[in-house]
Amino acid sequence: TSIPEQSTRTVKTHCPYCALQCAMTLTVTERDGAATDYEIEGASFPTNRGRLCRKGNTAHELLKRTGDRIMAPLVQERAADGARTGAFRETTWDHALNVIADRVRNIQEAHGRDAVGVFGSGGLTNEKAYALGKFARVGLGTSHIDYNGRFCMSSASKASTLVFGLDRGMPFPLTDLDDACTILLLGSNVADTMPPFVQHLDGAREKGGLIVVDPRRSTTAELTADGGGLHIAPAPGGDLVLLLALANVIIEEGFAAQSYLDSRVEGYAEFRRSVSHWWPERAQATTGVGADQIRAVARKLGHAAHAARHGGDPVYILTGRGVEQHRDGTDTACAAISLALVLGLPGARTDGRSRGGYGTLTGQGNGQGGREMGQKSDQLPGNRRITDPEDRAHMAQVWGVAETEIPGPGTPATQLLHTMGTVDEWGEPKGVSALFVHGSNIAVSAPDTGRVIRNLRSLELLVVADFFMSETASEADVVLPVLQWAEEDGTMTNLEGRVLRRRKAVDPPSGRSHASPATDVGPRSELWIWHELARRLGSPAEFPVDPRAVFAEIREATSGAAADYSGLDWDLIDAGHAPYWPVPSSTLSGEESLTGEPVVGTSRMFEERFAHANGKARLTALRPRRQPVPVAGQLTFTTGRVMEHYQSGAQTRRVDALRQVHPEAVVQIHPATAAEHGLDEGGYAVVENAQGSMVAKVEFAAGIRSDTIFAPFHFPGQGTANLLTRGLTDPQSFMPEFKNTPASIRAATAE
Ligand code: SF4
């Protein structure tokens, strides 16, 4: 017998999870050409500087899992009454794709082309996000495509577009934060969600300038201890008023950067008038933050920004989902940007030194690229507007179709999911009758998941593409097995707007076995799936399967657009460069960065002008909605993440080392509130409201407000936090309100 040959290969790539996109090396051990083991190590890159969090460190476990990996297309049986039975039958790709194409044709013939909807993801590579938008619009011919980024980035994205004229989450390199003397961080628990980020807060922390705004004393808020800075705990929903009150003090006490406002900003007078109503004593009642504390923070920011305007260390204002996932999330993000403008920070330099600015911390791995590739219901690639005749004509030319073949704007995510499969009083569909879901687990992550699951069960056709049997996939008529992170090539755009290479390191499983010897099985790329479906549906457009060819098309599609990728070069990115968009061809010259790494594209934005036609940033009046009067006995329920899990947990709940630390749903509550409700630490509680209820293990947290309870949203079944969240959305961004839900809590009894 011959001894199997062993070899190792090392592949440079980026983490499969969050938007920090930490660089890593994945070492693959092979015997006779088959992968037998994997090792992950952090690699040098400015965002992570060699560090990884627990999720990144264990990401190779996903590649090892075979037991619950979907190995062949699956079709779910239906009972005589039409209900899905839960019994899945393996089939070939040819059969599965024919079933889908036939059913799509029948549904569209009966109800029109818009009867089919598509739900995408901020986890897809740029190439897949782009191809999915194209597949929806000119493969299926539907206007109804939206994606899970609507649930995470839409408010900050809308606010940046309104105020700056362009949406790049961080319009400066992350490493700029290292020099800061003061950072106001609102609604983000980076110490748990993206731990390697924390090193960029160290500079401000050492200078006592880290100000964390969070109703919980989160791991990030703890960083302000021992002279690191300040923690402010407003009531959920109070952030907008808090920001307006900070602006009020800054303006009233003469800290506004008047010459910057005169030359670079319009609308200051309206904004100033609107904040004049929010003096600290008035804001105290809404925010739950003392007037003295509001004044102290405003003065700290004012002095720091004044120093930055005279060559001192920079000042940054950063927001996360905590302040954005509200019904006034767009106004709140606008208020944070406005505050930075009043302080004279964004895009400004003194003696060649940046004064600071505003940034939002994108969450999902490709949350930035995913939102500019055309998955949004109102947007075409490059952040082009779907209602703009010039943008439509450009895309029609790139896609090789008539402009009239590109549908108009569709329905934003929450409305799409809350109306799908439902009928009006005459039995006519109120929403789509068929849904494609790619890279998303909406049965856990969407607001009001009880309603979402009921609607999924009423659809005539549900197609889910995934690599594990997620809670959403288990509802599907057809499940399509797809490739996971290290099994295919592509590009991602991180939270700074840098375009990175995600590399293939291993071959996907073949899907063949003794029991199932068919060759037409095994996971495939979505690019191939959309190519095949578009062909079967008679699409007039071409759908390339090679990611490099799709990337070339993205360059053409985004040429001249706000998010311009046209000057990017696959080989350049492949060689390890990570250019910042926009990269129009003319800027592809490169400069040497401090780390010696060549920088291509536009690392710092708005230095000369903002992106509105007149080059000015646009301030407007901001008027907070009246807050509902709290009902006696009710608490405010808010959701978020823990270090060990990512999004709906569909991947991280399958990694033993992560699941062991956080195996189940928990609810954090102040010990005094727990005592009032008869709850013991480690016992179980029912959290409930008119929407639904969840059961979770009680965790005492002395640092949470006594009127607030918190649950992570990573868990399925009765631990699903989103059973309680509602379908209320921000009127400008359509972002659901995940962070401010009335609920009550009681001890769970053994039933
Ligand atoms: Fe991955 Fe984000 Fe953790 Fe970095 S911080 S290792 S990108 S999950």
From TrEMBL:
It comes from the Bacteria. The keyword Acetylation does not apply. Residues 8-67 form the 4Fe-4S Mo/W bis-MGD-type domain. InterPro entries: Asp_de-COase-like_dom_sf, MoPterin_dinucl-bd_dom, Mopterin_OxRdtase, Mopterin_OxRdtase_4Fe-4S_dom, Prok_molybdopt-oxidoreductase. The keyword Iron-sulfur applies. Pfam families: Molybdop_Fe4S4 (PF04879), Molybdopterin (PF00384), Molydop_binding (PF01568). Residues 352-388 are annotated as: Disordered. Keywords: 4Fe-4S, Iron, Iron-sulfur, Metal-binding. Residues 355-372 have a biased composition (Gly residues). SUPFAM superfamilies: ADC-like, Formate dehydrogenase/DMSO reductase, domains 1-3. Gene3D superfamilies: 2.40.40.20, 3.40.50.740, ADC-like domains, Dimethylsulfoxide Reductase, domain 2. Transmembrane segments: none annotated. This is Molybdopterin oxidoreductase family protein. It comes from Citricoccus muralis.
